[in-house]
Amino acid sequence: MTEPFDILIRGATALTSDPAQPMIEDAVIGIRGDRLVMVGRALDADGVEVRRVIDARGHLATPGFVNIHTHAVLSLARGMTEDMGWAPAYTPGVPHVYDISEDEAVALGRLSALEAMLFGSTIINDMYVHAHATLPAIAELGLRISSSAWIHDVDFTQVHNKVWQYDRKIGEDRLRYGIDLHARFNGAFDGRASVMFAPHAIDTCSADFLRDVNTERRRFGVRVMTHLAQSYMEVEQVKERDGMTPTELVEEVGLLDDGLIAAHCLVMTESDIARAGAAGITVAHAPKVNLTGGYLPVTSKLRRAGANIALATDNMHGDMVENMRWALASGRLQERAVNDFWGAPDVFHMATLGAAKGLGRAHDLGSLTVGKKADVVLFDARRAHLTPAFNPIGTLVHTGHGRDVATVIVDGRVVVENGRATLVDEERIRTEGRAAARQLWTRVTGQPPVGPARWQAAS
Ligand SMILES: [Zn+2]
How far is the CA of 313 from the centre of ligand 1 (A)? Predict the structure, then answer.
């Protein structure tokens, strides 16, 4: 006799992201331990012994979203820096990496990770300072966490003043920190944690430092996350410094291949796009952040050239459903048409299996497929804005929200139920996150956080 299932989810419409059976109505999803052991139709579960049944009629079941690029600590800047500049690290007058204490990073990182989890991400690929402290704090939520240290050899205290000074000692220290992080946490938390290397960006890392990172990533067999071609300023700086575009430099130092996850890829020449595509890099595409920052992505060209596009929320918010919508809209803006190249299934793939591929995890994450990790999300579709759901994937992408998530299962464990986290105190996380943000802004700017001056009420 076979062992009973730990969980059987019944009655949902499953959007599996598995090309073999993309949609299953009245689905059954069986979980034993940390694995999916059944993804099929109602009759398949007849006679199966089950420890717990989840009645999911009226729900959509999806794989957990794979959020391929976040800076969880940057919840500190929510609603503020989006209107001050295009990225907090380059914006004067806001808290920067070197301002943030370990305790503040934990409080803020946990807040963003909680948000991402409540909205259906089951793994975030996070890069920021204090990763040794934020990684375990995020894992405690029950979330899967791919983490990387914020490594660079620039003196970051001057970057927001447009001064790039490189220091070999800084580079050695940061790289050693990344290697230590890998030694401590790669595979930790029952395998829910993993560690890669993240040279911050091509303007904040010298060519020699990028070569060192390439040596180490090959030694450890890990992927590399970086920001690439994310602004005109970066491209100008690297051209002046090295006489080539950031993409050309990444290729020159040996990093441009299918082990590279490059955030944004916005300011690229035709030749850069062709190189990135031919190398099969994964583009961590954060369309909401890009468009809010005034950049129209080049994801259509990158896709056609062969790059893997994976979705990310990046800074300040964690809703992957909303990001699917922005990705679709920005794709169509590039196409200047509604055509078959950008549809709801394409962006859903980018948020699930495509992103898992980018992390090197397509074998065990990213789709509802028997044998993969049991990371499952249930959206409550019994809501006015999701009715009628004649085409469930179109309805989810065009009118869904992260806040429609009712249940999140990670590694076979229910970590969100009825829209609430099961393992942690949400109210405490929210209160501590808010307090940390307030304390940080006040210490750095000399006053409580207020946002751009012209928006303040006239006195
Ligand atoms: Zn980023």
Answer: 9
Q: How many domains does the chain have?
A: 2
Ligand 1 center from residue 360 Cα (angstroms): 19
pLDDT tens-digit series, residues 413-456: 999 999 999 999 999 999 999 999 999 999 999 988 876 666 66
Helix 426-445 with 102-118: angle, nearest 10 deg:
130
Q: To which residue do tokens 């990763």 refer? A: 131
What is the mean predicted confidence (pLDDT) over 254-270? 98
DSSP for residue 9: E
User: Ligand 1 being an ion, which residues bring their Cβ within 5 A of it?
Assistant: 263, 314
* Distance from the alpha carbon of residue 404 to the mean position of ligand 1, in angstroms: 26
Same-domain pairing of 235 and 154: yes
Ligand 1: centre distance to CA 284 (Å) = 9
| CA 22 to centroid of ligand 1, rounded, Å | 31
Strand partners, 405: 379
Query: Are 245 and 304 part of one and the same domain?
Result: yes
Which residue, of 334, 358, 382, is where some domain finishes? 358
Distance between Cα 391 and ligand 1 center (Å): 33
Residues 69 and 139 grouped into a single domain = yes
- Encoded tokens for 199: 């040279």
CATH of the domain at 238: 3.20.20.140
pTM, rounded to two decimals: 0.96
Domain match, 58 and 81 both: no
For 84-132, the pLDDT digits (tens) are 877 778 888 889 999 999 999 999 999 999 999 999 999 999 999 999 9
Going from the C-alpha of 94 to that of each of 69, 151, 157, the distances in angstroms are 21, 20, 12
What domain range is 101 assigned to? 65-358
Question: In terms of domains, do 56 and 69 share one?
Answer: no
Mean pLDDT of 261-268: 98
